[in-house]
Amino acid sequence: MADGIQCEQLQGLALQKKEYKHGLLLNGQQKKRNAVIKKMQSDVLEREGVLSVTELQTVSACVEKHVGWFTCTDHLELLLNRVSDTLSHLLESESIGNRDWSQLTVKICLQIFQAVPKHIGAIVWRGECGKEALQRIVGFLFQVIMSQSLHTDSRLLASTALVKLINSSPQPQLGAVAALHAVQLTQEEIDGLTLGELKVTVMAKRTDDLGSLLISRGLVSCNHNEMLVCQLPGFQSGASVLLDLLFPVIVAHCEDKRSQILSRAFQVLTLWLKCIKVNIAKIWRLRAGRLLEQHSTFTTQLLELMWHKIESPVEGLLDSIHCSFRLFLDIYRQECSHFGDVKLPLYSFLLHRLKALPWQVKAKYLLLSSLVSCFGADKIMVDYEELPKHLFNCLSTNHLCSAASELYWTILQQHRLECTLTQGTLSEQELAESWAQWWLQILAEALTSDLPLYQQNTANYLLGRTLKIFPASFHLLARAFDGGHPEHHLGWITLISTQQVISGSLPMEANIQGNLRASLHCLSDRVRLRALALLCISPKTNQALSPKAMSLLKEFLPLNLNCSSSSFRQLLQASVKKALVRVRDSCLMNLRALRRSDISKKGGEGCPGTADCVFDGVGFVQWLLELSVSSLLPSLSYQRKKTALLLMEALLETCTDSWSPNRRKGQPPQDMTELLNLARQSGSWDFFSQCNLQILVGCLMDGTNEIRELAAKLLVNYLPIYLPQPLAGALFEHALRMLCSPRVSQAEAGALMVKTVLQKSDVSVLLGVVVHGKAPEDVCSQTLIFVTYLHQQLEEHYRVARADLLQAAKTKPLHGLIVALRKCLTEVSETRSSLWLQSFRVRWRLFISQLMDTLSNISHFLLDTLSGAQFSCRRQETAPSLADMGIAIKAVIAVGKGLEQNVGEDSVLLTEDDKLIQTCCWVTLRELGLLLGHLVELGLSPHTSANSAHLLSTAQVRNTAGIFQDMLLKCRHWGVVEGSSAGFTRFCAALLKRQSPELQSIPRQILEKGLSGLRGPRSSSITRRAAGLPMLLLCVVAGEDSETKPLLHYCMKTLLDIANTPLSSDWDQTIDLPQVCSIHTLKTLTQSSVLGSAVLTYTSNMATLCLRGLSSASWAMRNAAIQLLSTLTCRVLGKKCSGDDSTWSGVTACTFFLHYPELKSLLLKELYNATSQDSAPVGGHLQLYPSLHSILSLLAKLQPSVNDTNGACSRFLHPLRQLAANPIHSVRMMSAKALVALVPLTEYSKVLAALVGDLPACDTPIFHNTLHGQLLQVEAVLEAGLDAGCLIPQDLQDVVKSLEMKLWLVSPVQRCPLIQAAYLKIVSLVLNVCSEEFLSSLQLVLLADLETPPSRLTIGSAIFRRAVTHYLCAEVVRAGNPHQLERIDRLLFCGDLDIRLAVLTWITQDLSCKNQLAGSWILKHLLLPGSLSCSDDALGNTPRTL
After folding, report:
1. Cα-flanking dihedrals φ and ψ of residue 383, to 5°?
2. Burial zone of 967 (CB within 10 Å; 0-12 exposed, 13-18 middle, 19+ buried)
3. CB 784 within 8 A of CB 856
């Protein structure tokens, strides 16, 4: 008992001590706070003037942390005065552009209003001390809200602060009146604002329409519900701020066309609907009835507001519309529940409108997902039967996948819930079967699709959600993939892979193992790779490979090393690497488990099988190592060696402890050394044994670059020690011999060996190099010794070349040593480390100077050799022609062989010596340009200290610039131009990055010189497509790193000015015109991916230039213009998606014209000019317009927009329809394709009906060109509409009825076979909609036409008869009547050769007929002996083809 009392006393003393310490702490904090407040009051508030940014930050922190200090009226008034002065200064001076200053000032206003609302309310509504200062602040806040020059964030803060004052009203009606005045003031309906006792006059005028929207946003997000839904004084009964004041403002802004206002307006609409939802009960009482009647003006206006913007391209707008639509449905459901409306008619109306939208509309699926929970999943599936098809169509387009997936997920969840509620407790199998009624077939088809994107998106977006909601659907899907086709294997693998992700492990039942093994042995590469990925990948990286999985891998890998596909090898390596990571991590996990069991003295009894798992993993890695090494023998194929090296790279990257600083991820685990030691104790994992090392070194001598470079990479990155000295010495000696080979591949192999020796050799081997050369022995830098020796060898080879270039090309070429120098100087990290050492800088500067002198001499020597200058008295200033180069090379050969120089001068055949010298020259110049670019980059390295000079002088840099200009402008060989341009780009980039104005000016001087040379006249044609000049200019502008790119803009403007210069009256087609060279240069700049989108800012200018150039009298000008226009089209629209000209990237017409509005006006003007040249009211007489076909080709490559909300495409339809009468066939064809691209999907039915309605009757006078063009347009629109699924069924029926009434177009009355064939193609598209009576009449007409031999040769008759034959054959297959096969028999053996060829073409090309009864019957007759006469050469080979 006494102990308990003493314990309580001790606890009491401890508590008192704790409270005492806490009191002292609070005391100290209070003193510290008072000191801070006092200091701020003396330093900030009591001084006059504006608050700086630093002072504002201090005040903001004090307001946030120490609220009580300015509850004193004097302090608050001081603070308000200082803030008022600051706002006045900001609004009256140019400091308004300082975003931080203005934003901080407005933020402090909001903080004060939030911190002391009672004190501020007393000032506003009772006029207490501080009224004048607060009144000025309110006026300034209004100016901020109305000012367009201020940042939007500051304006938002100001509107929120102002609403805080309105919310402080003691009565809701007072706040409502203040809100009314605030909105009216932003709309300039009044000049001043009365806010309680504050009288504010705003001097600033409205600069944009955002002010009222910002006030509305502040009001709907203020949560002052009583003020928003109270009776608005002065208005009719039931009027409120929320409905009658704010809604009209929001509607007006939502109808604005400016994207920056439109986006914010719909955000405010979402907040407004949230406010409506919260206050809906109060609104019912205020209005004494419902808010959302189905046909009321308010409901219609709200729905149309959202509906008209669902296809707007404004970023983020669709998400806001989706949120608003969901809130609208919630409010409507609340109302129907409250007022007892069980029919919910608005749901059916909305579903009908959503069904009518094309499947390409993303908003369709987002809005449907909101409607599912209201309407019910089963009702939607019944009413919208095409939904599964449309939803799965979305998976072929990435931007629709997420919306389709969300709708699918919502439908499945709702369907499961409805089944549970309506049918009681159901088993998982029964639930899965109910799901299968709607989705099994189409999901199985998607997973077995031959389109990888379609299948991948189905697996990623739909399959996983299906298996989570309906687990038993796994077995239903598995049965759907029981077939042995590759597509079935792919579907099954995708199913098992998704199930593995969900369950966490790969099921390995007997049937699954059998299917997996069959997939691993499938003939399809895609199936084998997917099966391998399934076997190797696991959700957990430390999940060990099962013995069965290892066995399957050991069976699979040796059989797949010879694959010729590069992508197959890369994916194979990726999958095997994931398997190796699993092996490594599982072994490490088991080793840790063994270590813990040893520490706990349990001897491993608690971890059964861990040791076996470790040894199995070690054994598998050893097997893979042996397989890889055995596949690297010299006699094996390139494919096998490449795959083996990739597998070995995966091994070394995964199962070694080599740490690489260049890798951000994938570093070896910390305890990897323990696993390596365990494996090596058992005699395994000796990756670089003597045998393995020799085989890898042997790969350095392979004949292919890929094998050599990959082997060198493995040696350099993963070999933990230097190469053995004997091996390194022998390798270096062999490398020197390879550098002297005239073959480029062998010289490159020697250069790679030299670099490898440099990186993986010790000092003794490097010093052994000095014995062969004359490098100074006092130099300690290994790299400097090495490159000095290589430079000495290069000078020796150069001396031989000057004496006898033919002999040098055979025994001592220059290019090998130049490549070796480039690799050693730029690809070895030790080189840069040595360059940055101050002790070596003098010697490095001397070496680089000597090397650049040597390279300069070599370049001048080779260029003189190719131009023949060494045999003439003067140097040629222009690039020699190819013929001149050939003569110069033959002169070199003659000198080398001691012959007369005119020997063989007239021969046009190239000898081996010709090829040898030509290759030696251009490869040397190419590599020389690359090396010079790297040398300048090294010499001007930014890592050098500020006190030390660059390794290169300005004179050397200018000399290098001259070398590049000579190589680009004085040599025609494209290999030289291409190689030099890569080095020159690096050269210009290095100069433009320097801080020295003198260095930065060099690229601009080169650019100006090139452009000035382009303007000057020329005496002859010296280049082809401007040759190296465009590359010279491209290199200069590509080196710019700044965002503004001044050099590029200067170059583009100058080129456009030159190209737009009119041709002189006496222009000569035998010389290069400056305008033509400028256009070719523009093409090169546009084609370059280095410049990115910066060059596309001149799209309209270049397009205008091209269209004008197509009308030029100069062929060269027209040729250059069409090339530039083609390049520009590719850059703007992207690459072609398939071989079809109409299938390009998904740039819609509306999006294209939104980005290039000037181009829209230009194209439209050209089209109207083309169609208005002839004023005759009838067609067929339009004049030739040179740019017309190119314009139509550009428009035809666009994709149709879903909805033409801005009217961007509608103005094109009239001239395009007029072009149906053009006398040129290709123009009529392209106008039909362009019409498809420019008709919105929602207008296809309307336009198609108009086109068919314009087809003439039988007795109407016609022009054949016009009628043919109309039919082409009908065919194009109809086919596109059917493919897109956007034609309304009833409208399609009406169109088909109109077409049936035009049967005369295929009858003998119509004498043009092309028109007959066009009409027949249109009918073939809608056979399933045509009436049987019409089809019977059509067949009679067509059979009669075929049986009547043509009386005379007519243009297009063969095309029509071929179309008739194909149609009749297809009709036989469609009808499925065996008795009609005789018709094909008669056609096949008729006397008309065109018909017989048409039947055979249909059999061989229409793959679907081979699976039909007609196909098998026809093939049987073709293979009968004597069934066909072999005398017809055109038919003799057809049976063998089949």
Report:
1. -75, -25
2. buried
3. no
State pLDDT tens for residues 1236-1265.
Answer: 988 888 888 889 999 988 888 887 777 888
1256/1274 Cα distance (integer angstroms):
13
Distance (Å) of CA 438 to CA 181, 382, 1004, 1031? 57, 10, 67, 60
| Closest by CA position to 766, among listed 758, 775, 776 | 758
> Token pair for residue 1285?
């699924």
**Three-state secondary-structure class, residue 158:** helix
Write the burial class of residue 1259 (CB in 10 Å: 0-12 exposed, 13-18 middle, 19+ buried): exposed
Q: Measure the CA–CA gap between 987 and 1348, rounded to whole angstroms.
A: 75
Cross-strand partners of 201: 192
Q: Which two tokens stand for residue 369?
A: 């997902």
CB count within 10 Å of CB 975 equals 15
If phi > 0 it is left, if psi is from -120 to 50 it is alpha, else beta; for residue 127 that is left
Name, in order, each residue with C-beta under 8 angstroms of 195's C-beta and a sequence gap of 6 or more: 124, 138, 165, 166, 178, 181
Give the DSSP letter of residue 200: E
- 3-state SS, one letter per residue, for 299-315: HHHHHHHHHCCCCCCCC
Give SS3 for 841.
helix
Beta bridge partners of 194: 199
**Partners of residue 195 on adjacent β-strands:** 198
AA identity, residue 635: S
**In this structure, how many other beta carbons lie within 10 angstroms of the beta carbon of residue 295?**
9
Dump pLDDT digits (tens) for 488-513. Answer: 899 999 999 999 888 877 777 778 88
The secondary structure of 442-491 as a DSSP string is HHHHHHT-S-HHHHHHHIIIIIHHHHHH-TTHHHHHHHHT-S-SHHHHHH
What single DSSP character describes residue 601?
T
Six-digit token string for 759:
């990186």
- The closest of 1065, 1381, 1281, 1078 to 360, measured between CA atoms, is 1281
CA distance 1288 to 355: 10
Residue 51 to residue 386: CA distance in whole angstroms? 66
b/e code 306-343 from CB counts within 10 Å (16+ = b) = bbebbbbeeeebbebbbbbbbbbbbbbbbbbeeeebee
Q: Identify the weakest region by mean pLDDT among 294-298, 530-534, 1002-1006, 1376-1380.
A: 1376-1380
pTM of the predicted model as reported, rounded to 2 decimal places = 0.76
Q: Is 259 exposed, middle or buried (0-12, 13-18, 19+ CB in 10 A)?
A: middle
